[in-house]
């Protein structure tokens, strides 16, 4: 079925523009984003075209490139190298803002996000996935918070001193490895105190439930899908979805084909209807107020049917054809993220 594109502003829960830009080379990274470039999912001109008005911009520390260890885990990254990458990407976020002439704003509150969008400025939120840069004293977290950090995934899909990330496995649940360490529990308590959103997308099952026990904030998986449809270790199980619902949390749909496809195929021809199928399931399980988007743009293989950020109106059109009215589309596209961040940050 073909559908008319729907233009509704989208605020998205996860993009990897910072690590992607740094991976291409530090020099000129700001200009490549602001002026546009070929072959990527997001640059500023195309974000405008697709109606992407803002989102969580992730700092991601690249892996070591070494093989899996005896437990099947990705090797740990060392703290100094993590710190270098974290500072470099956080600085890039600010350099983009500084060179944007008002077209890109790093926001630390929902009021700032709304104002930026009103003025036509891309509303970016500073996010980190994997806090290998911090020591158990957590001093760095105070500094990063002062630098604008408002959301944090304690782990990426590998272990660190705080918790155990779920390694990428298809046909396997997230029940891989132990839960939070003592330092990890301190980290969760400090995030609560500083009102930094805790993102569980890369957390394994034991860690998820440890956070659920300790945290006083809504539970969030910013870029994950339904395990019941695609049994990938990165996706959320029904029990996890129920906990997200019970805490008035949120799950953001990941556009990555390997997290969508029922057979776990990284199939670039996966239809947009598969994204709709996950949204339908998530809405049924957690409710229309707790489902949003977490594209993973520039961080994973996305279907050619979506292409890049300019494909967002096609997804919204497909959702409309599937029966979502304007109010529901507004919630999924941006309203639910605003409401979740408001409740988490205030
Ligand atoms: Zn991720």
Helix run count: 13
Shape, principal axes of CA atoms: globular
Annotated CATH topology: TIM Barrel
Q: Which CATH class applies here?
A: Alpha Beta
The CA-CA distance between the termini, in Å, is 43 Å
Mean pLDDT value? 96
Bound molecules: zinc ion
Helix content: 40-55%
Q: For the record, what is the CATH homologous superfamily label? A: Metal-dependent hydrolases
Structural class: alpha/beta
Identify the CATH architecture: Alpha-Beta Barrel
The overall strand count is 9
Reading the helices and strands in chain order gives EHHHEHEHEHEHEHEHEHHEHH
Taken as a percent bin, the fraction of beta residues is: 5-15%
Q: Which runs of at least 5 residues are low in confidence (pLDDT < 50)?
A: none
Describe the largest sheet.
6 strands, parallel
| Rg, alpha carbons | 18 Å
For the record, the count of structural domains works out to 1
Architecture overview:
There is one protein chain. Helix content is 41%, strand content 12%. The chain has 346 residues and is an alpha/beta fold. The strands form two sheets. Strands 1, 2, 3, 4, 5 and 6 form a six-stranded parallel β-sheet that branches. It has a three-stranded parallel β-sheet with strand order 7-8-9. The protein is globular. Bound molecules: zinc ion (ZN). Zinc ion (ZN) binds at residues 129, 201-202, 223, 299. The site of zinc ion (ZN) has 5 residues, from loops.
């Amino acid at each position: 079925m073909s559908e008319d594109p729907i233009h509704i502003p989208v605020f998205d829960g996860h993009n990897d523009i910072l690590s992607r830009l740094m991976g291409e080379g530090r020099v000129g990274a700001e200009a490549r984003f602001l002026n546009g470039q070929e072959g990527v999912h997001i640059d500023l001109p195309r974000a405008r075209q697709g109606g992407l008005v803002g989102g969580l911009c992730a700092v991601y520390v690249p892996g070591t490139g070494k093989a899996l260890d005896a437990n099947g885990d990705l090797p740990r990254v060392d703290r100094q190298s993590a710190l270098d990458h974290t500072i470099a990407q956080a600085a890039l976020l600010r350099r983009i803002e500084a060179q944007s002439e008002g077209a890109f704003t790093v926001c630390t509150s929902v009021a700032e996000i709304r104002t930026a969008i009103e003025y036509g400025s891309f509303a970016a939120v500073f996010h980190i996935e994997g806090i290998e840069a911090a020591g158990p004293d957590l001093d760095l977290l105070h500094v990063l918070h002062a630098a604008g950090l408002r959301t944090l995934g304690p782990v990426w899909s590998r272990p660190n001193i705080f918790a155990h990330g779920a390694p990428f496995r298809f046909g396997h649940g997230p029940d891989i490895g132990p839960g939070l360490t003592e330092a990890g529990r301190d980290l969760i308590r400090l995030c609560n105190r500083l009102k930094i959103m805790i993102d569980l997308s890369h957390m394994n099952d034991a860690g998820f439930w440890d956070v659920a026990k300790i945290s006083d904030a809504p539970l969030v998986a910013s870029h994950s899908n339904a395990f019941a449809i695609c049994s990938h270790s990165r996706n959320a199980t029904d029990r996890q979805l129920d906990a997200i619902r019970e805490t008035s949390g949120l799950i953001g749909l990941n556009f990555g084909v390997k997290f969508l496809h029922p057979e776990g195929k990284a199939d670039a021809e996966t239809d947009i209807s598969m994204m709709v199928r996950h949204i339908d399931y998530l809405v049924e399980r957690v409710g229309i107020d707790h489902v949003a988007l977490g594209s993973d743009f520039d961080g994973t293989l996305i279907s050619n049917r979506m292409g890049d950020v300019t494909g967002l109106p096609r997804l919204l059109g497909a959702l409309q054809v599937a029966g979502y009215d304007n109010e529901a589309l507004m919630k999924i596209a941006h309203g639910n993220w605003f409401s979740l961040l408001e409740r988490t940050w205030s």
